[in-house]
């Protein structure tokens, strides 16, 4: 099971807080984490093993989309900041579109991610 994690700058603390709530359960399960560069650094500092890709604005979102298109991902958690502007908004839209094309579970806020992780940790 491979999960991609991405958070805009205004949501990185939320991502770390969210993941920390599942730390024990994720460590017990066979879950690999992959993240865009800066999100990955935050997650790593919180004590998780994570594969770090490029930072989002320079291609990290596109790398995650490519992994999704190649069926290498089982879930994408993308905490977007709807109150900020992003120079790479086309990449953000492309990633979400690719998730829909390939029917990959995609959570864009902590409430939906929480439901998905609860389902995941109960069934794995
Ligand atoms: O920009 C992002 C998502 O669109 C996230 O990228 P970083 O994790 O490198 O900040």
UniProtKB/TrEMBL annotation:
Coiled-coil stretches: none
Enzyme class, first EC level, given as a word: lyase
Binding of substrate, residues: 8, 12, 36-39, 55-56, 88
NCBIfam families named in the record: MGSA, PRK05234.1
Entry similarity comment: Belongs to the methylglyoxal synthase family.
Organism per entry: Algoriphagus zhangzhouensis
GO CC annotation: cytosol
Domain spans labelled MGS-like: 1-124
Name of the protein in its database record: Methylglyoxal synthase
Active site: 61
Catalyzed chemical reaction(s): dihydroxyacetone phosphate = methylglyoxal + phosphate
Superkingdom to which the source organism belongs: Bacteria
One BP term from GO: methylglyoxal biosynthetic process
PROSITE patterns, sorted: METHYLGLYOXAL_SYNTH (PS01335), MGS (PS51855)
Leader sequence segment: none
């Amino acid at each position: 099971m491979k999960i991609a994690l991405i958070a805009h700058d205004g949501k990185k603390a939320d991502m770390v807080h969210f993941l920390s709530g599942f730390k024990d359960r994720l460590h017990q399960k066979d879950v690999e984490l992959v993240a865009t560069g800066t999100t990955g650094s935050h997650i790593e500092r919180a004590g998780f093993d994570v594969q770090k890709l490029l930072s989002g604005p320079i291609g990290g979102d596109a790398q995650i989309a490519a992994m999704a298109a190649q069926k290498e991902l089982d879930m994408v958690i993308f905490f977007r900041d709807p109150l900020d502007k992003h120079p790479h908004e086309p990449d953000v839209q492309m990633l979400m579109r690719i998730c829909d094309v390939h029917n990959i579970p995609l959570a864009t806020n902590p409430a939906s991610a929480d439901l998905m992780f609860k389902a995941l940790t109960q069934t794995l």
